[in-house]
Amino acid sequence: MIALSLRRQLLAATALALGLPCFPALAAEADAAAPADADAEAGAGLNDIVVTAQKRPESLQTTPISISVMDDKGLQDRHVVSLLDLGDGSIPGLKIAPFYARNSALIVNIRGVGVLSDGNQPARDQGAGVYVDGVYMGRAQGLGTAMFDVQSIEVLKGPQGTLFGRNTEGGAVSITTKKPTGEFHMNTIAGVGNYGSYKGEVHLDLPSWNNIAVKLDGVVAHRDAFVKNPLDGADGFNAYDRRGVHAEALWTAAPNFTADYSYDYSYDSTTSQYLQLISTGTNIQSVLGTVQSERAKTANVGVPQQPSIGKVQGHRLTLSWDVASDLTIKSISSYRTLTQSQYDNGSAANGMSNASGNFTGVSFSRDSLAHTKQNQQSQELQIIGQLPRLKFAGGALYYREHAGDDAQAFYTNKFTNASGSTYTLIDTGPYDAIARDRASKVTTQSVGAFGQATYDPPILNDILHLTGGLRWTRDAKHGELDIVNGALPVNRDGVSGAIHLDEAWSRVDPMVNLMVDVTDDIHVYAKWSTGYKSGGANSRAQEYDSFNPETVSMFEIGAKTEFFDNHARFNIAAYAGDYKDIQVDFSRPYESGGVRTTRTTTSTINAPGKGGLHGIEAELTVLPLTGLTLSGSFAYQYVHIPATVNPYPNASGVTSTLAVPIYATYTPKYTASGSIDYELPLNGMTLRAHLDGNYDSGYYVASVDPVYTGANAAGNIYNPKTDAAFIVNGNLALADIALRGDAMLTVSVWSRNLLNEQHLFYKSVSATSGVSGLFNEPRTFGVQGQVKF
Questions:
Q1: Strand bridging mode 171-177 / 128-132
Q2: What pLDDT, on the 0 to 100 scale, is given for residue 29?
Q3: Which of 241, 278, 380, 386 might form a disulfide with 771, Cβ 3.0–4.6 angstroms?
Q4: CA-to-CA distance for 345 and 271, rounded, in angstroms?
Q5: pLDDT band at 9; cut points 50, 70, 90
Q6: 2-788 — its CATH code?
Q7: How far apart are CA 674 and CA 355, in angstroms?
Q8: pLDDT higher for 32 or 21?
Q9: Torsion angle, CA of 84/90/91/92, rounded to 10 degrees?
């Protein structure tokens, strides 16, 4: 009975912290589905993991979805400062990477689905959704900003179209922050490390006053550049300054009604990463165009460089009303704004080679600038309840987003002699005065309604749990393309001027799931679900043609098991699905005055045919000895995209009939991770040690080959795969050191990429220019102190 009581308390506490319902029958059901004995709850066995993937707190082991969870301790052990730090593969099936050399926008990929091309444009979306406390983050920009006292990160794998809606065809990342407790607590963290890094956090819980509990968070993090910039006064490469504040007030207006308001503001300053020349092509290199095949400490030339600045702020109001003991109505309202500047001169060596070998007056170092502004508002209503044999969740959502961007690119340096050994800076004038290469804006409106229910039929001792769900969504996008390729766009009638987008799409996403409790500790399930990524338009396209949503339909089977008296947990899932209407980009010539030129634009089409996805994911956690935890995970994923014909003519007016291969991007075929955690009580303190290793087999970053003229053709230049990677992180701490009063001190040393392994996580190839790439971050380490009371 001790274990059952503690499990109920855990579910109730989680529900209270998250503003979610926790019905008495639900707690009892979770006890029956994932029992543990008193010794396990006392620390001898694995702790139960509570997730909220189905809009209510449930045990991970009885939730029939493939989910990976990283809690606050896991984030601290890996010294995670932003979501980008999870790109090392520590969560199987999840890939996070910067977009090209730009840390200001992140690519999020789950099961190989999310981003195939440029998802940073106002009228394009990613296929893996990111949520913070139930609020959808609409843009790839801003995802690398401050993280405020995170309680857990749940990665829901596979289509989540029924409960989460649009842009979750690959899955969803759900981030939950810690809520006010109504009691006085303070948690402070301060640390320093190499590359001039420092980190500070303050989390303050205030005593409840008139049933209002308040929590305040402040964070700051800094790191100097990894690669020095030889130009005096210019910023180096891959540095950051991040800071933010967060305030939350939880008002318990009545025993059955709460209002939870939060405000957050983040400032994110980052410089671009440094694109290195790894090997040469057929061109003649300038003297300064040196090959840097190892991770560079200093760029080969000095270039103008300044930080990209992102500012994000938002309001959220969550109302929760327990209408009855088994029925809760919940409202989530939000309004968020984003501004993001981009100053990317990471391609410092761009243009430092040519066919003639004469470099006098040749420009190089292409700087890419862009500015994004966005605001979004959303309103979601949820009704969550249960009957004796039926659990249900339903609701409706309204989402509106307005986003606009502009961009320009130009060379900042110029050679002054034939050999390319000397250069000067190009006076471009103020950046704001430079003509824009492209500009667009769009307003997105989405409405939807959903319902999901789980029925436990009164047969076979209640071991069956049948779930069905359905969501209807309507998306509309209204916008315009104002500039493309430095000029007014030209429509199909040959008229130049702004081209408008006015499209709408409706979708229905069903889900069916059957779970069977084979024993109290073994649960198997079979699930079929669908999801989609919104349609839109490409702001790099001359005619701003719209494209339709792409879809995923997936079947998944899985098992969630515990054994060895709750000292081991093994979860596994296998999936296979159809991938349709895939949004594929193709280059096409820019047309001016009815004449095709050698300049290119980029258009997006829905690829004909049907692709496929399949894979396996497995996670194992074992407690072989008191204080020792061993964890491991493995994922295999394969994405097939049908070969597709470029429907656009080339500069000579010829339209090819050749179907070219399309590659899934940011999708390593194999990933694996493992970790060791050890805890040893000492005299007046506790020794805690953590070590994790993370492997991926490499992936493609471009969806098409640079040159493809036919299968096995001699002139083909194939899309290169990035290097395989193995990253080790470590943390060693002396914890629970008693200070005055009830204050406790923890002192730790940490390291990311402990073995200083180097690999190219971005790689591109050209027959003339050679191979270029971005290296992963070098070894970082530091010391950190934490005081809690």
A1: parallel
A2: 39
A3: 278
A4: 9
A5: very low
A6: 2.40.170.20
A7: 49
A8: 21
A9: 120
> Cβ distance 271 to 310 under 8 Å?
no
CA–CA separation, 74 and 95 (whole Å) = 17
Confidence of residue 662 (pLDDT cuts 50, 70, 90): very high
What pLDDT score was predicted for residue 4? 38
User: Six-digit token pair at 251?
Assistant: 């008002």
382: left (phi over 0), alpha (psi -120 to 50) or beta: beta
**What pLDDT score was predicted for residue 417?**
96
**Residue 657 in tokens:** 């009939």
Alpha-carbon distance 221 to 18, whole Å? 27
Written as six digits, the tokens of 675 are 């970790």
d(CA 163, CA 54) in angstroms, rounded, equals 7
Closest listed residue to residue 156, CA positions, set 133, 129, 176: 129
- Mean pLDDT, residues 287-316: 95
Residues in the chain: 789
The position carrying tokens 């449930």 is 58
Give the pLDDT confidence score for residue 117 in this predicted structure: 79
In three-state secondary structure terms, 554 is strand
How far is the C-alpha of 290 from the C-alpha of 286, rounded, in Å? 8
Q: What is the pLDDT of residues 594-624, one digit of tens each?
A: 778 877 889 999 999 999 999 999 999 999 9
Which residues, at least 6 apart from 242, have a Cβ–Cβ distance to it below 8 Å? 81, 82, 145, 146, 219, 220, 221, 222, 266, 267, 268, 269
DSSP state of 41: I
**SS3 at position 86:** helix
Residue 535 has pLDDT above 50, yes or no: yes
Residues β-bridged to residue 638: 614
Cα distance between residue 729 and residue 287, in whole Å: 39
Tokens linked to 101: 């050399």
What is the C-alpha separation between 384 and 395, in angstroms, rounded? 9
Q: Which token pair is 270?
A: 């980052």
Using CA atoms, how far apart are residues 610 and 594, in angstroms rounded to an integer? 35
Candidates 724, 728, 731, 721; CA nearest to 763 is 721
How far from 576 is each of 457, 589, 639, CA to CA, in Å? 28, 38, 10
Q: How many CA atoms lie within 13 A of 24 on its CB side?
A: 2
Torsion, Cα 618 619 623 629, to 10 degrees, reads 140
Neighbours of 442 (CB within 10 A): 22
- Predicted local confidence at residue 376, as pLDDT: 97
- Match 């040159």 to its residue by tokens: 707
Query: What distance in Å separates the CA atoms of residue 347 and residue 273, rounded to the nearest whole number?
Result: 9
Would you state the structure tokens that stand for residue 323, as one six-digit string? 């209408």
Write out pLDDT tens, residues 32-49. Answer: 333 333 333 345 689 999
Q: Which has the closest alpha carbon to 546: 607, 502, 482, 496?
A: 502
Ordered alpha helix ranges (H), 559-709 = none
Gap between the terminal Cα atoms of the chain? 31
